Each structure stands twice: as C-alpha cells, then as structure tokens.
Amino acid sequence: MTKPLNQLSIVEAASGLRAKDFSVRDLWDACMAEAVAKNEELNVFLELFDANEEAIAAAQQRIDTEGEGAPLLCGIPIAMKDNILIEGHVASAASKMLENYTATYDATVTAKLKEAGALFIGRTNMDEFAMGSSTEHSAFGSTRNPLDPTRVPGGSSGGSSAAVAANMALAALGTDTGGSIRQPAAHCGLVGFKPTYGAISRHGLIALGSSLDQAGPLTHTVEDAKILFDVMKGEDSMDATTIPADFCATKTSAAKKRIGVPYHLLASGVDEDVRARFDETLEKFKEEGYEICEVQLPTSPYALPAYYVVMPAEASANLARFDGIRYGNGGKGKDLLEDYVIAKTEGFGHETKRRILLGTFVLSSGYIDAYYRKAQSARGALIAEYDKAFEEVDVIAFPTTPSPAFKFGEKSDPVSMYLEDVFTVTANLTGMPAISVPMGMVERDGVQLPTGIHFTAPKCQDELLFKMGGMVTGEEIY
Predict the structure, then answer these.
(1) For residues 451 and 442, is the Cβ–Cβ distance under 8 A?
(2) Per-residue DSSP letters for 423-471?
(3) pLDDT at residue 121 above 80?
(4) pLDDT (tens digit, 9 = 90+) per residue, 320-331?
C-alpha cells in the first residue's frame, strides 16, 4: 500500500487485510495514532476507546479463516457519534445532562456493525442533542475543521465528519435530522448519506425529532457509504417505523436520465463560486447523456420554517424525559420543582433550551393550530410536490450548502445558522433519501475549501443515489 493505512478507504483496507499486507492491529494502531496526535487541536473525539484486544483478535481470525467471505467491514476502525448507544460506553449527546450516562445496550446500528466485525475507535463530538449546524453547541467545546481549523466542520455530526477528514478513522456514523450528515460532509470534503426514513433502525439513537432522525455514514467514497448502508439497513422489531422487507420492492421506477434542478431556489443566497462548481458538475452528467430539467417546487421556500416548527416540537417532547429524576444529571433543590429547575438549567445548553421553549410554545393549546398543524400541512404539500416532480425526473439536485465552511462565530445569529439547512431539510420532512458528494473546491482567505452537490431521490430509491454520487466521484456503483 502506498498510502498510510489510516488514509485508506474501507474497500482498500479490506483488500489489504485479505492480502496480508498489514494486520487488523496495524490498521487500528495507525488510526489511533492519528487520533491521539490531532485530537487536542481539533477536539474531534469526546472519548477515544482503549483497544478491544478480544474484538481485534476476533476480526483478524475471521479474516484469516473466511478470507474473501469475511464482511468488508471486518477489522475496520469506525468513529461513532456521541448520540448512538454502544453498550458499556458513555453516550452523552455532547450534553452535561448525560455526561455520566453509560449505555446499557447497543443501538441496532451498533449491533449490526459489531456483527460485521467493525471496531469502534471512539465517540465523536457533536452539537448538543444534535441541535446545530456547526458543532459549536457542544457542552464540551467546538470541533475544528481539519482543512482549516479556523472554520467549523459543520454539524451536528461535525465530530464524525472531522474524524474521517482528518484520517482518524476510515469511516464514521452520524445522524441526520435536517442535514446533519450531509452538511458536514460538504464542509469536510466527504460523502454523506441520509437513507430513506425507516430504512435504518433508530433504536438506540438518542432522539431529537422522531419523524426526522436517521443514522447514516460519512465516508471518503460513495462505495464505502453503500457498504455501511447495506450492513445497517433492514426491518427491526425494536423500531416500528422501520420499512418492511418487501415494501421497497414495490417502489421501483423506470430510469429517465433526467436531473431536476429548481433554479428558482438558487437565484439568490448561493455563493457565486459554489454555483459555478454546481453547474460544472451538472455538465458532467450532460456528457453522460443526462438531461438537466428545471423543476418547480413552489412550497420549498416554506420547508425551512416548517422544519423549525416540527423539529423543536418533537424535540421538546423527546427531551422532557431528561428531568434529573428519570434520566439525566439531577439537581439538589429544596423540593421537587427546584430539582427539575436546577437539573434542566444546568444540564441543557443555550441552543437546546431555545429549541425546547420554541417547541413547547408551538404545541401549546393556544398556538398548535396556528403553527404546528400548519407546518404539518406544509410538510404534506412538500411530499406531494416532490412526488409529482419525480414523475418527470430521476433525482433533484441542489448545492448541499449555499457556501463553504464558515469561520467560528460568523453565524452567531440563530436565524443565519438555521439557513445553513435551507437545501437539506426537505429530505427529512419528506422522508426521502439524499446524498452529498464532493463537487470541487472554492477559495476563501487563501484556503481551498470543499463544496458538495446534493441529490434527493424518491423513497426507497437509495441505490439510485449511490449510482448518481458515483458518477460525480468517478466510481462505478452497481
């Protein structure tokens, strides 16, 4: 291997392990050495795990015994976002409220990765309870972008994206509620994939918005993302929202070789050079015989405000359990009410409090019709609008973000931060799959920064997105 071991893709590492070019232990040590060397500067990992000698030995024996029949993830070091449960390890969701909570069971995605022989290198930093787009809202300090430490890595899965971009792990898991995998992937030059809602179990994920959340991979290549998705997908008896095995088989659609672009949404707010990279990337598809078609999505401008009603409403309900009595660090007040007040005041950060208060407001008896139910109506209109558009096109394309990674403190106004999600929230509101893949670089302050192109496909058409993403990166995905 000419590349350092910690810079390999999953496919390259799996090939090298089977060829006995290096061992599982060599691969683990290379990733861990990089993580230890860079973590103090970048604050990527909240905890680096001790080497699990038993798991490392078992992975090596499995590869030696099964050879090409061993799962491709066997022996691969993976970083895990801090809101995904790993039995015996802390899962704090980057919050003081849960800093002492140790998981008593594995999330379904964790169990499936363990079954495939993957190794967990540590838990990554994130915006508290996944509320943010920059990883500036962690209770344990901000994560820095490995490509320019003066800038954010994106969020809320910023620690996971930075872990892969800094070559501390070969891949990572994040969670995506409104773009929290895809947006940091774009800011760190990675592939980020949000599956169809229900394709991957949410059991064992610390919930933010239950109708929006999905776990998914952050990787160097589209093929690696597909490998992780294929291992994690599937119906789960512990999550009633997972898709039955035979459901997606009825959701195929004929290829049209047409890409829809809502140019009316790109007319303002997208940086000129980001738009140039986007147009250049679409030209590659034209060379492959694709037609670029303008699509009208008149409800899409309301997607962001609808999201910021629905998500806080669900967050306020999900986070009500963290009261210091049933869950979370407790307060020491003179009575039960003061216990609650102290626990929530000290346990939650400012952004989390803001969204809980907003969610409680829009669900209150005097305002639920004016806000929450109207947002849900807008959600239904968005789904119908996209379904109609997909009668004419295969996928819908946007830039993943309007601009590249921004500097720390640059978006201190909450509304400007929320606008980071303007192109990504729709996939969560509609339940459709979406992918971000690198589409070239732009320059800011003398530094080259990555950008991403974003594709959305109809529900259950996850495989189509791997094909489209592979065409951008030059990979043949079957």
Answers:
(1) yes
(2) TTHHHHHHT--EEEEEEEEEEETTEEEEEEEEEE--TT-HHHHHHHHHH
(3) yes
(4) 999 888 888 887
Query: CB neighbours (10 Å) of residue 9?
Result: 18
* Residue 42 to residue 163: CA distance in whole angstroms: 9
Q: Are 111 and 232 in contact (CB under 8 A)?
A: no
Sign of CA dihedral 47, 53, 56, 58: negative
pLDDT tens, residue by residue, 359-374: 999 999 989 999 999 9
- DSSP one-letter code for 271: -
Q: What are the catalytic residues?
A: 81, 156, 180
Contacts of 70 (CB under 8 A, 6+ apart): 18, 62, 63, 117
Highest mean pLDDT among 186-190, 254-258, 341-345: 186-190
Q: Which CATH architecture has domain 5-232?
A: Alpha-Beta Complex (3.90)
Helix (H, G, I), strand (E, B) or coil at 2: coil
* pTM, rounded to two decimals: 0.96
Contact yes or no for 108/204 (Cβ under 8 A): yes
Where in the chain are the domains?
5-232
* Predicted pLDDT of residue 247: 83
pLDDT at residue 252 is higher than 70: no
CA distance 145 to 136: 11
CA distance 241 to 203: 10
Do strands 45-48 and 119-124 pair parallel, antiparallel, or not at all (unpaired)? antiparallel
Alpha carbons 344 and 349: distance in angstroms, whole number: 9
Q: Which of 140, 178, 180 is nearest to 160 (CA)?
A: 180
Burial 17-36 (b: 16+ CB within 10 A, else e): bbeeebbbeebbbbbbebbe
**How far is residue 310 from each of residues 99, 209, 305, 365, measured CA to CA in Å?**
27, 8, 9, 16
pLDDT in tens, 267-283: 888 999 999 999 999 99
